[in-house]
Write a structure and sequence with these properties.
By secondary structure, the chain is an alpha+beta fold. The chain contains one helix and nine strands. 15% of the residues lie in helices and 30% in strands.
Amino acid sequence: MKLRKFLLAGICGVSLIGAAVPVVANAQVGIYFNSAPPPARYEVVPAARRGYIWVPGYWDGRSRRHVWVTGHWERARNGYNYVQPNWIQRDNRWQLNRGGWQRGPGGRDRDGDGVRNSRDRAPNNPYRN
């Protein structure tokens, strides 16, 4: 009898703890500015590295001002394309689209040219990356 009460109390306690765990939401916070970002800075693009792509620098929005983020290498991801962060003007405001990795067409685009490998004449084009 005591064991049953103990188990019942334990189950109730665990269920209450499970109800208190916050649900993780996946939402991007939009960054808006009333002024356009400055022109992009000139950066020397380094020589190609096998298995990596060069991501050019861009203007980020931090603490109500534009801050330059320098270019960097990203490890290539099979079946994904890297979308460069960019600013778009909407309703007299400028919005930053963060960019990042996006699945290629059907997830089957090794060289990132937008053509599925099954329809691509050169799916492993070494000059694409």
